[in-house]
Specification:
CATH architecture of the largest domain: 3-Layer(bba) Sandwich
Helix content: 25-40%
Number of helices: 12
Bound molecules: flavin-adenine dinucleotide
Distance between the termini: 22 Å
Shape: globular
Largest sheet: 5 strands, parallel
Strand content: 25-35%
Length: about 425
């Protein structure tokens, strides 16, 4: 962004109070309603930006800020390892949000939130907001293994789609036949519960085809597979007999970077490729300013509006919040719509929708064609003031090629919804 553009935006924002002269009632009916700034243009943030614009019929100025120029999808990124997708096929620009929906996109890293002044800070400059949406996704906790933070080239997490996904794919492709590919899964809560097990399937699919003497070891800090358990166990038995070794209750105690060796309470596993997925917390911007007030990891929000319980006129959505629900793209997209509606309502001085409900569907590919899914409906429960699952959800009976096609359709649909 050029400095002049930034200052222009900043001035528009700080000049906003003069609009008060129009009077609240007139503003409600006709005028511009103010400015919403959204930090993070991933699944949650980009959706919120789009829907604030459309639900306000363009009367709210929306500025969407991201440190990256493009949107790269984590959903489907495990298929890059399986060899069915390239990262380029999962990378999209923000042109439609800009051109069709009038969202202003700024590239930059937000370093602080100055809630007293209702401003965000980027590269020493400031941008004013009337409402702020914070959707930064996750950050990684390397406290127990600080050397791994420095060793991400050798031992990638690939838990944010991008260069690390490509790196992990390259390591898989150059691994010797007969080698060991280890996936270390953190204890819950982490981003996308079924994704580590889907990754095991995709890696095994690649190895079965290209290096059949190799092995996948899953060292899981959780006591059992955390999602679609029976389906994954069956898929591993049917499709990759003897190839995937699953070790539950395997919290890493020591890691030797040079030899890619992980020691747990019971095992020592030396790997050719080590995919260490660290424990997670809300993205860094949520840590400053105390937004992440739950165990200094996640952000507490009001589920009717996604307003932060810590900072006024700041909303938080997506993986960064403490919801006790699966952290998924589908969920971030659904929360963003509730949040967008509530922001528009608040700016029109109207009450929010009293009983929001939404579904979460999560597909996992087990090979190059077949997928399986779980779908759950969540409804606001006024007694606990939280989103509660209705029943145990709908689970596939078995993976199928039809569900593989459904999963493709799901991805295309959500990309269209998020990015306009
Ligand atoms: P993100 O989508 O990560 O967006 C956060 C954005 O904020 C990023 O663009 C980042 O650059 C930006 N940002 C962060 N900090 C700053 C800052 N300070 N300044 C500027 N910009 C900033 N979910 C599903 O529903 N279905 C699936 O099949 C599925 N598969 C997955 C597979 C894998 C391998 C993984 C890792 C995840 C998968 N997920 C899936 C989960 C899904 O990717 C996340 O739940 C979703 O991306 C969360 O959305 P978000 O908006 O909270 O964060």
């Amino acid at each position: 962004m050029r400095r002049r553009d930034f200052l222009g935006l900043t001035l528009t924002g700080s000049a906003w109070p003069s609009m008060a002269a129009f009077g609240a009632a007139r503003r409600r009916r006709h005028g511009r309603l103010g400015r919403v700034v959204v930090v993070g243009a991933g699944y949650g943030g980009a959706t919120a930006a789009r829907y604030v614009r459309s639900l306000s019929a363009g009367r709210i100025e929306v500025i969407l800020v991201d440190q990256n120029a493009d949107f790269v999808s984590c959903p489907v990124s495990n298929r890059v390892l399986g060899g069915q997708k390239t990262l380029a096929q999962l990378t999209f620009g923000y042109d439609a949000l800009r051109q069709k929906h009038g969202v202003r996109f700024l590239r930059g890293s937000v370093t602080a939130i100055d809630a007293e002044r209702s401003q965000i800070v980027m590269a020493g400059q400031r941008l004013a907001y009337d409402r702020l949406v914070v959707a930064p996704g996750i950050d990684f906790i390397y406290d127990d293994f600080p050397m791994l933070a420095q060793a991400q080239q050798a031992i990638p997490h690939a838990w944010k789609a991008g260069p690390q996904t490509r790196n992990l794919q390259r390591q898989l492709m150059t691994m010797r036949d007969g080698g060991v590919f280890t996936i270390v899964v953190p204890a819950q809560p982490y981003r996308c519960p079924p994704a580590p097990y889907e990754r095991a399937c995709q890696v095994a699919f690649y190895l079965k085809t290209h290096k059949p003497r190799s092995k996948v070891v899953v060292l899981d800090a959780n006591p059992v597979i955390t999602s679609k358990r029976a389906l994954f166990e069956q898929a591993w038995r049917d499709l990759y007999p003897g190839m995937i070794e699953y070790v539950p209750g395997s919290e890493p105690k020591e890691v030797d970077v040079a030899t890619k060796t992980v020691r747990t309470a019971f095992d020592t596993v030396k790997s050719d490729v080590l995919n260490f997925i660290p424990p997670q917390r809300a993205g860094r911007i949520a840590q400053g300013g105390g937004l992440a007030n739950v165990e200094r990891r996640w952000c507490e929000v009001d589920f009717l509006t996604y307003a932060s319980k810590v900072l006024p006129r700041v909303h938080v959505i997506g993986d960064a919040i403490d919801a006790g629900l699966p952290k998924s793209a589908h969920m971030a997209n659904a929360q963003a719509k509730v949040c967008a509606r509530a922001i528009v309502d608040a700016m029109l001085e109207q009450a929010p929708e009293p009983a929001p409900a939404f579904a979460n569907t999560c597909y996992s590919y087990v090979d190059d064609r077949q997928a399986m899914h779980i779908s759950t409906l969540y409804r606001y429960d006024p007694a606990s003031q939280s989103m509660r699952a209705e029943g145990s959800g709908i689970l596939s009976e078995h993976p199928s090629a039809q569900e593989g096609r459904d999963a493709d359709a799901w991805a295309r649909q959500i990309w269209g919804d998020v990015l306009g």
